Amino acid sequence: MEAPSGSASLADEQPAAPTDRLDVRRQAVFVVLTFLGMMIGLLGSWFDAPPSVVWASYTVAYVFGGWYGLKASIAALREPAIEIDLLMIIAALGALYIGAPFEGAMLLFLFSLSGVLEEYAIGRSRTAIKSLVDMRPESAQVLRDGTEATTPIEDVAVGDVFVVRPGERLPLDGVVESGESTVDQSSLTGESVPVTKEPGDEVFSGTINETGSLEVRVTREATESAISRLITMVEEAQEKRAPTQQLIDRFEQPYVLGVFTMTAIAIALPLWLLNHAFEPTFYRAMTLMVAASPCAVIISTPAAVLSAISAGGRQGVLFKGGEHIETAGNVDAIAFDKTGTLTEGNTRLTDVRARGDALSTDGGAVGSEPIADTALETNSRDDDRLLALAAAVQSRSEHHLAEATVEAAQERGPEVPDVSDFEAVVGKGVHATVDGQTIHIGNPRYVESVLGDRPIDGRETGLEAVRELEANGKTSVLVVSETADGLRVLGWLAFTDTIRPDAAEMIAKLRERGVEQIVMLTGDNERVAQYIADELGIDEVYAELLPEEKVEHIEALQERHEAVAMVGDGVNDAPALATADISVGMGGAGTDVALETADIVLMSDKLDRLPYAFALSKETRRTLYINFAIAFGAIAIMVLAILTAGIPLPVAVVGHEGSTVLVSLIGLRLLRFDG
User: Fold this and answer.
1) Which residue ranges does the record assign to the P-type ATPase A domain (predicted)?
2) How far is CA 162 from CA 113, 138, 144, 211, 538, in A?
3) Which domains does the chain possess?
């Protein structure tokens, strides 16, 4: 029985799918002809039909029942290799040779029937995710010179604007230009609740626009859309064999050769040493060959793993291969990044405080009058001046705190001066030249390591302010000016990030599902990290970490636990993600990096998909154990019964093929797993 072949690529799937269906239908027709030939031959022999009718019927059964098995055996022998199909063909011919044509025909019938059922089961698991292709419209209503034109999605370019009305599916990925609506993204991200979309929000092809009309500017070509990438990666994942499957593949050849050897011994020893009659000895050897064939063992892993990959894909969880499903089932410790993972990642600048008159001597504020705002506390010209200087330096940085600073400055309008000689110190801070002075922006570690023991006017005042802000759960940095006259603290900035509303529930579910240790690894300061950890009930917190230090903590966890997962954004945490046994990326629907780097990708930003992913992995491992118990148990019971009680070939055939079909159907159950 052939192991399932790899799935077609996305480009090939449309023409390949009808061919696959036609082939399965042809196999089904062959199974029916085999059954009819077998039954007519049996009834003919019972009711004394002419021998020509009986043997013609059995010939039909043997030809159509053994057609695909013989083709597979010949193809394997050319490699050269020995497939299990060859065992079945030889056993059927052996039964025919000793005058038991019905038993041989029954073997071929059940063998070909199980093959069709397995193809159906595996096909269901492979095509479940491919049905997403049908969700993507073939054309888009593109705005051309103020009018709508129906355009095939292959001809729509990045930058074009298309219109989507209530009830329609979005044809391409893009950003909303105008209009407001709710969009059902469940087909892509697994989210059960429609998501509100307004100008500036990202939308994805294949999702359903529900309430309002939207004008969307295209950001990705059709072949690069989120849904296309999802399908492609699921197909690639299905082709990557799980460790258990690799092990089975490695031992298939030795096992099959062992079955042939055992069959030969079962024939030779009774004939030569015990002087048994040839026909019963040969019959028992053929029965033994059928019973010992590992069809159920070989199909048990792909039936379960491919079903799990497809089930996860439909729930917004992308496993990048069968090996990750198996490994994730063993995870008993999880490390989380903080920003963008346990928090929403929408970092906001909340406090800007100039120290005394430290900025007054620099000529007052830059820009307009101070701006009163409840979210950002600035209450003097000096505060505005501090914000302008900080934004100038941070404009060159990609750090989330820098982005928040620049965004706040843009909203509040102070004139931002030019900057030069920018330099970043990873995990600590940045500095650059502004208006002839060097402006340093960093956390206390930056002050200690970069500025060292040099005297800093206002050091203690600034550090005390930072500590007070951190005690309230805010991330804080100092702004220090360096001139020919020395260093002085100009002021400090404070930022906050919102804890995800589903984070606490997610952690509770992980504990219910067997995760023993939950850890936070963050580059943020210890007070802020501890504040969030206390809110969420996290076991251990390691703060103020550089990327290489996160790796060290992952390695330490691996020494104490069976398997360690790291959950992060796939960019800043790349070394730690690569070190962990399983890496999980957040928000893959809109994040190229998460799709490319993580072993498991949560296509939405919903943390509830994480417990689902680990629950699906555990259920897959449990299914594999059940399948192996059935497969090996059936072999052991039948072999023992043959050697002791001498069960007939039809019983061995039913037991062998029945266990094969059973493990296929048990694996197929995972398609409906909902956590």
Assistant:
1) 135-235
2) 50, 13, 9, 17, 46
3) 19-131+237-308+619-672 (no CATH), 139-222 (2.70.150.10), 318-345+499-618 (3.40.50.1000), 348-358+376-496 (3.40.1110.10)
